[in-house]
Design goal:
With 333 residues, the protein is of the alpha+beta class. The chain has 6 helices and 7 strands, in the order ααββββββαβααα. The protein is 33% helix and 16% strand. Helix 2 packs antiparallel against helix 5. The longest helix is centred in the first third of the chain and has 37 residues. The two termini are 90 Å apart.
């Protein structure tokens, strides 16, 4: 047996061409003939591969025949407005810094007024207490607000009123309002004795807080309180008072419309003992008016500066690339 010889590239190419020609003739013949067989190749020869050079190119389909094709005419370009860049929002942005600046200036005036008011009240507190006259004109209390006074008399515990709820050191309770019946002239004034805990609401639970003899009260003469819109109305028929309506409470107790807030400065241990026994804890002799106008000034002026910067950035903002291209196209026409 003869040894197997490898095919040369020239002979391999010749055999491939002959096989292709045979396939073409078999495809175009009109008569049914037996399939043409090519000579068997040697087992040692490599498998035949079809050359890419003789492959038939696929037909290119026009884009217009594609159902998903979209033309420029079907999707027109978006128009960009180049003349007017800002809308009504710019007017609102321009009003905000002006309004904030005016409010900040108003708070400056309020700060000056509140500072003078606090200084006037502090000057009254440091003065020695005045004896309370028998008759007090309610219209003149404004000129003596936060003035220290002294009065003697007996508490009318049968006409006691509780105003609350009020918080003290994180605990809920009430303010004890007791009419003070003065000896001699028989006039009566309302005294805010201080705060008691909620568990001592009933008088039977705090017998130490009900003095029966003559007492001397020292406190601050205050103007009648003003009710805010969030506070409910008092219900005297159920003995429920949510804010001290001085005129209403004076009419119920038969006293003058005079409001005195008892002052004291108990030590820590004394305050704990008073709270445990249900004895009212009075307020300190100090001005406790809120004065947050400085914070409001920084808030409003800060808002004015911030919105002014935003307004400047919006007005001076450069146009976008699309707007710039549209403007260039308009200049070309």
């Amino acid at each position: 047996m003869k040894p197997c010889k490898w095919l040369t590239p020239q002979s391999l190419a010749r055999r491939v061409e002959q096989a292709l020609e045979a396939q073409v003739r078999a495809a175009h013949t009109t008569t049914r003939t037996a399939p043409t067989r090519t000579a068997p190749t040697s087992r040692c020869s490599p498998p035949l591969r079809r050359s890419f050079a003789h492959s038939t190119p696929r037909p290119i389909r026009p884009p217009a025949e594609d159902p998903a094709f979209t033309s420029v005419l079907d999707n027109p370009p978006e128009l960009v407005r180049t003349g007017r860049r800002h809308g009504p929002g710019l007017i609102i942005l321009a009003v905000i810094p002006v309004t904030a600046f005016l409010l900040g200036t108003w708070q400056v005036q309020r700060l000056g007024w509140k500072t003078e008011l606090v200084a006037k009240f502090e000057d009254r507190i440091v003065r020695p207490p005045l004896p309370l006259p028998p008759r007090v004109d309610p219209d003149a209390i404004h000129d003596f607000d936060f003035r220290r006074v002294r009065a003697r008399g007996r508490y009318r515990h049968d006409r006691e009123m509780l105003v609350g709820p009020r918080m003290h050191d994180g605990e809920q309770g009430f303010m004890v309002i007791t009419p003070l019946e003065r000896e001699g002239d028989g006039t009566t004034v309302l005294v805010n004795r201080g705060w008691i805990s909620k568990k001592h609401r009933l008088q039977k639970d705090r017998p130490d807080s009900l003095p029966t003899g003559e007492v001397e009260v020292e406190g601050l003469l205050r103007e009648p309180w003003k009710k805010n819109m969030f506070t409910p109305d008092n219900r005297p028929d159920k003995n429920e008072f949510y804010f001290p309506d001085v005129k209403q409470m004076a009419a119920l107790s038969g006293s003058q419309a005079v409001w005195i807030e008892q002052t004291m400065e108990p030590g820590l241990l004394q305050a704990i003992d008073m709270e445990a026994k249900g004895i009212p804890i009075g307020r300190a002799a100090e001005v406790n008016l809120r004065n947050n106008h400085a914070q409001y000034i920084f808030t409003w002026y800060g808002l004015a500066i911030a919105t002014s910067i935003m307004f400047y950035m919006v007005v001076k903002k450069p146009p976008t690339d699309v707007t710039r291209r549209v403007r260039m196209n308009k200049e070309w026409t």
